[in-house]
């Protein structure tokens, strides 16, 4: 399904007067208004291929309707999201859930749709059909060299898939860990993991990055071999400059100060980027900003301050990805909400009066410092996002447009009621 630009324009003209009233107030009060808008226009978030179908829990999955049946249809869904928002012009593929057949055709289709391929994800957390060995006791950290070798080769294959599609990063989430005290020698597991990662690192093209995700627990419940940012950072440091630490917001112990982690990784040039999502308990993979939008804002505050301090570009020097999955929402509506929440947090961070904040910090004006950042957080910046969308030809209100254009039913007509996304 290709979105009719005229239909978006006509929906936009219905909402225009109200929008213009709202934006005027912000124009008058934000000194760097134009700069904020152009940064919002530039800011793009990669969509994970696995979030385009309904996810599930370990207890079951309640299928949605009209889900994409193959990579091509996943690209089409990302194009829909991008036409509605002009904020997500890339897809992050997952191997082997997405196995490209004809690379040239796929690249051409993506570029026709105005999309490109973001980081590619490997998978050694499941056994695949017909596999004659098992990752039950781990992959890159496995005590058996042959199994480690299989996991290394898989990651190298993923790099090759990505290279043919124009990706520039391998994203690795290692599920290896242990469930019971005594099961695993931690030092041995770390050393074997490092050795395996070194083999993969050697296969990276010169202009690639190697994103190393960490997670405190799950699927294993006693230890995870890359459990926290310190362990990921240690591996990334030993590997070399292409290796960097990926922060998935849901992968921390409760109460962790994620914004401080982000600030220090950025300081060390070791921040790969993000898997954005939200959670109440642990790795809930809920819609970004649905539970704790203030935390998301505080993270963006550190990002904006840290990237500016380093003279880095916000839009391109960090990997911005969503990692979400659940049972109950329409995946497209859900992703629209995540994109909106991420950009709201970014916009709020962009309007912080940084000079005033530095002044307050240097004079230990604690209440003033809090007021400065909360002033930004409590500003309704939704019209800024709408303005950025309007200027880039997207929808003023993406979710409203999704519903008024009856997009899901159109997809059901094309794909059927019971279509299932590959890999899920
Ligand atoms: C798993 O918990 C990690 O968040 C992964 O990044 C991601 O969910 C997975 O690679 C998708 O399969
Ligand atoms: Zn993740
Ligand atoms: Zn997560
Ligand atoms: Zn996760």
Question: Could you give the topology of this structure?
Answer:
Elements lengths: L4 H25 L3 H10 L4 E2 L22 H15 L4 E3 L10 H10 L3 E2 L2 E2 L23 H21 L3 E5 L3 E2 L7 H17 L6 E5 L9 E2 L4 H11 L3 E6 L9 H10 L3 E6 L16 H18 L8 E4 L8 H20 L3 H9 L3 H12 L4 H10 L6 H7 L2 H9 L9
Parallel strand pairs: 1-2, 2-3, 4-5, 5-7, 7-9, 9-10, 10-11
Antiparallel strand pairs: 6-8
Helix pairs in contact: 1-13, 2-13, 3-10, 5-6, 8-9, 9-10, 11-12
The structure holds D-allose and zinc ion (3 copies).
CATH class, named: Alpha Beta
Our estimate of the beta-strand percent is 5-15%
Helix and strand composition category:
alpha/beta
Total beta-strand segments: 11
Report what the structure shows:
The chain is of the alpha/beta class and 424 residues long. It has a single domain (16-415), classed as Alpha-Beta Barrel (TIM Barrel), CATH 3.20.20. Helix content is 48%, strand content 9%. It has helices at residues 5-29, 33-42, 71-85, 103-112, 145-165, 186-202, 229-239, 258-267, 293-310, 331-350, 354-362, 366-377, 382-391, 398-404, 407-415, and strands at residues 47-48, 90-92, 116-117, 120-121, 169-173, 177-178, 209-213, 223-224, 243-248, 271-276, 319-322. A six-stranded parallel sheet has the order 4-5-7-9-10-11. Strands 1-2-3 form a three-stranded parallel sheet, covered by helices on one side. It is globular. The model has no long low-confidence stretch (mean pLDDT 96). Bound molecules: D-allose and zinc ion (3 copies).
Task: Give short descriptive properties of this protein.
48% helix, manganese, metal ion binding, isomerase activity, 11 strands, binds D-allose, TIM Barrel, three-stranded parallel sheet, globular
